[in-house]
């Protein structure tokens, strides 16, 4: 599954799932562009680390995914891309009648609209090359729902629909568009929540993970960022050339219920 000679942009990729995907794409030989809105020394050092470890070109480009013009400029600054991974996302939990409008707008902008803008910017170059891969990171919540997450679930359902539409518009052109739907993934953000959950429920680590955090995930195991990255690599490979307009769940059986 060599991706040598391909350039991949991964939005929201300086930590968590995005970083895991960037590392696996680089491991497969792709040059990668990391992204966040922070533009810190650590962001650039992370790109240098990936380049050194995997023998590829790795760059960091700042872009605020809540702003459509910056989303499109990211693709332009990268010089186009062969692989686009729309991963950037935020979350907020609240009943609908109390949901802050500014939080709704931010979640829709970052989790959904950013993918529209980057895809629109990337497609002309992919069409010119006759090859492209668009991988959208949705969620189990792109296929099902939970209470108090209205904006996130609306955005992730939208990402699934956007993936299908792009697949239909690019069918037969050497371009695919798919959505990965992770369940709970062990990221630094999730890891940091475990001690608080242990204290709140008076449980040990393994019990709070199995009985509280992974209650809806039948495997009772977290997915890893490397597993999500490996799924992205597969979708970018020749083996997946006829997989387009669909979802791949990496959720330990969550959506099988």
Automatic annotation (TrEMBL):
Keyword terms: Oxidoreductase
Highest taxon above the source species: Bacteria
Keyword Cytoplasm: no
Keyword Oxidoreductase: yes
InterPro entries listed in its UniProt record: 3-OHbutyrate_DH (IPR011294), NAD(P)-bd_dom_sf (IPR036291), SDR (IPR050259), SDR_fam (IPR002347)
NCBIfam families associated with the record: PHB_DH, PRK12429.1
Protein name, per record: 3-hydroxybutyrate dehydrogenase
Organism annotation: Acidimangrovimonas pyrenivorans
């Amino acid at each position: 599954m060599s991706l040598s000679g391909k350039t991949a942009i991964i939005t929201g990729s300086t930590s968590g799932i995005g970083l895991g995907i960037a590392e696996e794409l680089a491991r497969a030989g792709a040059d990668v562009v990391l992204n966040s809105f922070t533009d810190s020394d650590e962001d650039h050092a992370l790109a240098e680390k990936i380049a050194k470890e995997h023998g590829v070109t790795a760059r960091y480009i700042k872009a605020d995914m809540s702003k459509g013009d910056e989303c499109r400029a990211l693709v332009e600054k990268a010089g186009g891309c062969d692989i686009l991974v729309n991963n950037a996302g935020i979350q907020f939990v609240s009943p609908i009648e109390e949901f802050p409008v500014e939080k709704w707008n931010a979640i829709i902008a970052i989790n959904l609209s950013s993918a529209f803008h980057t895809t629109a910017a990337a497609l002309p170059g992919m069409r010119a090359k006759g090859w492209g891969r668009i991988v959208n990171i949705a969620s189990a919540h792109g296929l099902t729902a939970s209470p108090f997450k209205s904006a996130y679930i609306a955005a992730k359902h939208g990402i699934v629909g956007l993936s299908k539409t792009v697949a239909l518009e690019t069918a037969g052109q050497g371009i695919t568009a798919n959505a990965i739907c992770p369940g709970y993934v062990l990221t630094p953000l999730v890891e940091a929540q475990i001690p608080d959950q242990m204290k709140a429920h008076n449980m040990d680590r393994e019990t709070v993970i199995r009985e509280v955090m992974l209650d809806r995930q039948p495997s009772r195991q977290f997915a890893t960022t490397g597993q999500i990255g490996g799924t992205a690599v597969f979708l970018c490979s020749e083996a997946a050339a006829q997989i387009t307009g669909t979802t791949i769940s990496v959720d330990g059986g969550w959506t099988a219920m």
